[in-house]
Design a protein that fits this description.
single chain, 119 residues, alpha+beta, three-stranded mixed beta sheet, 13% strand
Length: 119
């Protein structure tokens, strides 16, 4: 026989698992405008931004949120967030990136995500 406290612990664990994903904390620093331009055009940075955005959007969809907080740029006191109505266009941009990098399985996953949540 299960005790009520054990059931409570199980419910708490499930609730904790559903908690919103932590927002990526960024610190952007540059000395020259060229350094900022180089960062913005860096493949590694671009990939990071897309992957983090995708993760945050998926989390928002799974938790039925009206918006997704993508990044906290703490040294600029700036939080980047998008509303649910912008999810599909963003996912389509991410899909273009996956196509360019021949990640076709991930494209299929994105299509299923869009269909599942009727975006």
């Amino acid at each position: 026989m299960n005790s009520p406290l054990k059931n409570l612990d199980t419910m708490k664990e499930k609730a904790d698992q559903k908690k919103k994903r932590e927002v990526a904390m960024l610190e952007l620093s540059w000395i020259t405008q060229e350094e900022l331009y180089d960062l913005a055009n860096s493949e590694k940075f671009y990939s990071f931004i897309l992957e983090e955005s995708l993760s945050q959007i998926v989390d928002a969809l799974e938790n039925n949120l009206d918006k997704a907080e993508l990044f906290n740029i703490f040294n600029m006191s700036l939080i980047v967030e998008v509303s649910k109505r912008k999810f599909k266009p963003i996912l389509k941009e991410i899909e273009k990136y996956f196509i360019k990098n021949e990640e076709y399985e991930r494209c299929t996953e994105l299509q299923k995500l869009i269909e599942k949540y009727e975006l």
